[in-house]
Amino acid sequence: MGARSSGAESMEPRALLLTQKPEPMALFAFFQTILLLVSLSLRTCQSEVLSEPLPLTPESLDVSINSAQRCLHLQWRVHSLAYHQELKMVFQIEISRINTSNVIWVDYYSTTVKWNQVLHWSWESELPLECATHFVRIRSRVDDARVPEPRFWSNWSSWKEVNEQNSLGHKASSVFPVDKLVEEGSNVTICYISRSHQNNVSCYLDGVRMHVEQLDPNVSAFHVNNVAFVRETGTNIFCEMDPKDDAGTVLFVSKVLEEPKDFSCETQDFKTLHCTWDPGSDTSLVRKQPYQSYTLFESFSGEKRLCEHKNWCDWQIAQDSQEMYNFTLVAENYLRKRSVNILFNLTHRVRPMTPKVFFKNISATNATMTWRVHSTGNHRTLLCQIELHGEGKVIQHNASIKVNGEYLLSELEPDTQYMARVHCGDANHFWKWSEWSGENFTTLEAAPSEAPDVWRDVKSELGNRTVTLFWKPLSKSHANGKIRFYNVIVENLDKPSELEPVPIPAPANHTKLALDQCSYRIHVTANNSVGTSPASVIVISGDPGNQVEEERVNVTADGFSLSWKPQSGDVTGYVVEWCDRPQDGSCDLQWENLGPNTTSTVISSDAFRPGVRYNFRIYGISTKRIAYLLEQKTGYSQELAPLVNPQVVMSNLTSHSFTLSWKDYPTETQRSFIRGYHVYLKPKEGQCHPGFEKAALSDNSVCCKYKIDKPEQKTFVVENLQPESIYEFFVTPFTSVGEGPLDAFTKVTTPDEHSHLLIRIILPTVFCVVLIMIVCYLNSQWMKEKCYPDIPDPYKSSVLSLIKSKENPHLTIMSVKDCIPDAIEVINKPEGSKIQFSGTRNSLTETEITKPAYLYLLPAEKNYSGPGPCICFENFTYNQAASNSGSCGHVPVPPTAPSQRGLLTSLENLLKALEKNYMNSQGEIPAGETTLNYVSQLASPMSGDKDSLPTDPPVPALCSEYKMQMAIPLGLASPPLSENSSVSSVTLLDQGDHHH
Amino acid sequence: MAATVTQQPQKLVLLTGDSWGMLACLCTVLWHLPAVPALNRTGDPGPGPSIQKTYDLTRYLEHQLRSLAGTYLNYLGPPFNEPDFNPPRLGAETLPRATVNLDVWQNLSDKLRLTQNYEAYSHLLCYLRGLNRQAATAELRRSLAHFCTSLQGLLGSIAGVMAALGYPLPQPLPGTEPTWSPDPAHSDFLQKMDDFWLLKELQTWLWRSAKDFNRLKKKMQPPAAAVTLRLEAHGF
Fold it and tell me: pTM (2 decimals)?
């Protein structure tokens, strides 16, 4: 307790000192004073009595709760005081939580106590009072100087129990405080009361688990410092435990109400004051706190107005011409009030109304602006600012007016849209400018002020010239309006004639003229709706002009740097022309006019591309407006390495050298100036030829390189080669930025050293052989006649018809059936003898001939039929002498004689005639010819047939092989030896097997 | 008896986004509802088309509610927007409960089920309108108003089905019109819990109604022979 007594010297700041409650005895003030004096005198007299310990114990202690404020209100009395007695006393108050021994607060309260006075004291708890039972007790001690030491504490009052939880009658689990409204940044203690003993309590503040402290088996609590605004529906606190007994509450965290900013009031019409401010943060919370209210209070008039809007409020000005105003704007929500104050003179807060603007007398260069500001009362002088916006510029003017203003806007550009606007402020007590008020207007057109910039391109063809005139559109400042058309007048300087202007509608920028070889002066003017520009004159001379040599141009970072020699005499200027797009053939002619004193310029264009060659021509313009070419330059804005290599042709290949040659590129395809060529040769055995040097290629291979420094040299002889060797070469151009791409090497094989000698021998030999062959071919007929004439054909013989028609009409070729044989010899052939014809053509192989085939003509029955032995007829067409005479002809003999003897006689006669007439007739037997048959010898073994008879045939062996048919009546049943044009394989069987 | 067996749909899933195309579709459906012959029971097709439309509308409302619930529960804040938040049903006593034994529900007559659907959505619509009045943001109010319109359409559609089947509409007793007035004794947390349960019950009701209408649709379908005949009549 001693320690707690000493603690009374440093009282806790959270203790709230509340008001005393004196007895209202105003009517008896005088008597009170008297009584006090009496009382004091009595006390002085009774000092010995007061020195005794007084039984001044606090009594009638009553404790009440304000749950929302988490406050305990204590009230008590000190009954022991004498009537009208006042005594300075100190009270010690103890507060315990959960149980009386758990004292959480000790406080001291000093006051002067009167008789029968009710004393009050309050205490605010951090923990919601619903969370735990609280106990309160109090004791007192006299602390009056009039009472001598020692002074003693009274006895404690009995503990007063405060149980809000029970008083609310909550039976369910709960989280406190319920729906508490706090400001952002506050510290809050939350407790969770469950119906059963808590186990594994988890509490979450907006989803974030909090560290929970258990106060008693059913109560847990946690503290949140510096709470933040999360959402307007509040921050949810949710607690759960085992067994499941969930509960939650919503903590409404309001943003801190801000002081209204930029609070000001002004008037435009002296009838209404318009006050505005910036409200700052919105402190509203759903279902808890509405948007903060704003109240306007004017202290001079004492009037107040609740504003309906968040950031502005109108105040009606009274008719009594109040000049001074003292406004207080109060912002308020459930948690706090904020206010701002302004004091002003009404006339110093005048903002003129927005002017109304008109334009009049608008011309090409001038316009008059008028405006009117509605009354601001008492015809106050206004200062107005006029702004003219146009052509990207802003020009400002000032004017002082009363009600109506007028300003002449001059030096305007023709055919230009402007925007002029005006705002005004009070000239005497400037407060604010009015709103801007402006209008657009467009000045009228004027005639173009400058001649168009004209240039030409002349192309001569077959004595005619096509002149293309180009002109650049006039700038807006020179066109002074919309250009409608261009007039072109062509004047023949050699033959004066009437001038006819040719209008060309805009926006054309060129026209073509077909001119002859005369000189012409061409005038070009631009025209708009108002007038015509000065003429631009250019002369096309009849002189074709001079040719100049092309030079290379320097390139700088700014572009092509061109310079030329100054021309003496009558040069009025220079023109540089070039094509912006030479690469695609469209040219897009550009030109630049330069003064007579200029001898250099830098040409740059966004159209310039790397690797494209640009040609620049510099013309001098004479006083007669004739352009003549001075210089011609060419160059690249940026050189690029070549993309292609030349097509190389190899020639003059010898065993020790060959020649490479290639053609020039077209200029347009060159991406840079070619400075020469590199000839690469893959070395044999790693050694480079003289003049070559070793070089590494881009594919890291090593080869020999020969450098040709002259770009005009396009042949190269590779020498010192070895015969019968393979060489590989490759030619590429090189430029300042590198060489061409690495292409495939071309292989070449050097020939043998003696190969030419061989050629000298072989060629004539072959020629001779061919010549002989041709001669032989041409004389083949002669050779045939000489060496192997054709065998004559008896049927084809004309001598036969000759005989028939002239000598004997019944004469015919001998027919077998007509023959009356003189003798028939039957030859007994052994069984199995066989004569076989084999082969495909004229071959006859007789595998077994046992006896010679003699032909004996024997008399026989005329109509013999039936099978019989082979009957052979000896062919008398030939005799041995004839066969062996070497003659190649076949001599058919018509067997007409009925007897052998007659036949022989006639044969001899015929032979003579035939030998004479039918040596070369072809032997052919018509098919179906049956009445006239003959048997003829095809060939003797000596005639050269490949398939010959056995080498030792019996005589007469000539009968053994036949080519022509031997027609034999079927009744004879002899084995026929028939063949037509082709020879069939026939097997002769001994009993009359007949094959055809 | 398994009294706790409930027909619970999936938990409220936080999905955002809305489909104005679906809204247009819904509006078209609503617009044509009066013209549905099934509603006046005089047309040949019977109640089938109107049941189909009611089913479609229920499924659409389910989809729409997923989006709305996501937005609204985010507006309430954690733990209400947490997917696994499954609190006991504190308060929200007046909300029509969708949790009922499945067998009991299926054993009800069509008339009774339709009547209970109608009554439930009538109540839920009133509560939703109250929710709309309390909402703080304009976007949320717009979404809620849109959903209320759709729910009103569903009520009309159910009334149409009932009329087509010849069932009378339940008449509210005078003075028992449900109104949404926050209980002053309710803490704001319990108020939020009520909002949570309102959305949850609504979702369960829609889920179950979709099943009801699907079942009813199948029940009301003409037999297969009739379908064949009709197809033949159409020249198939």
Answer: 0.55
